[in-house]
Design goal:
- With 194 residues, the protein is of the alpha+beta class.
- It contains 8 helices and 6 strands.
- Strand 4 and strand 5 form a beta hairpin.
- Strands 3-4-5-6 form a 4-stranded antiparallel β-sheet, with no helix packed on it. Strands 1-2 form a two-stranded parallel ribbon.
- Helices cover 44% and strands 11% of the residues.
- The two termini are 36 Å apart.
């Protein structure tokens, strides 16, 4: 972990930070704990990202839940045995990290990350009546803490429908499976020769 002075310098400079909650723990980077509290303490609202998709969860739902759980665990642990109230992030914070802050962190905040006039039409439609999302009481809480990739009904990117009724649009899945399997087999053969 960076020293508090380094975090303060980053906050003062207005830098962006992207956290990949599952890879930091699995790979064992530094303390293996995403630096969410350190970033927030200096005014940095981090973006969420995904790293090492071939070995770890490649969906933003997992990243959101992981960060939410880790930060809340840290907050409660820091306050345990004191009269201090834990400073916990909310599901709304986590959704912001995954959307608006994720776009901003990647230099795309003026293009995407929120439903705002003038930005490209990027949208996910999530089923709220699936077994793991019903009954819908809190849309943001359900999205962050209950939903997963199987609940995505529709995906629109830059105004173009990429997934409809739970199925990818314009993708030959059989051909994609063939290419992925061929790629894997080629890598395995090359590794076996070494």
């Amino acid at each position: 972990m960076y020293a508090p002075e380094a975090w303060q310098a980053m906050g003062d400079a207005g830098v962006t930070v992207s956290l990949a909650p599952t890879s930091e723990a699995q790979i064992g980077l530094e303390t293996a704990v995403p630096a969410i509290d350190e970033a927030l303490a200096v005014g940095i609202r981090p973006g969420l990202s995904i790293d090492v998709e071939v070995a770890l969860a490649s969906d933003m739902f997992t990243q959101m839940r992981t960060l939410h759980a880790i930060q809340r665990m840290r907050a409660v642990n820091a306050a345990y045995g004191t009269d201090t109230t834990p400073d916990r992030i909310t599901s709304r914070d986590v959704l912001d990290f995954a959307t608006a802050q994720g776009a901003r962190t990647n230099g795309l905040g003026d293009v995407t990350g929120s439903l705002t006039p003038g930005k490209q039409a990027d949208l996910l439609v999530i089923a709220a009546d699936d077994i793991n999302t019903m009954p819908l009481n809190d849309a943001v809480g359900t999205l962050v803490l209950g939903a997963d990739a199987r609940n995505i009904e529709t995906v629109v990117v830059a105004g173009q429908v990429r997934k409809r009724n739970g199925q990818l649009v314009g993708v030959d899945m059989d051909e994609l499976r063939r290419q992925v399997t061929e790629s894997r087999d080629t890598i395995r053969k090359a590794a076996a020769k070494d």
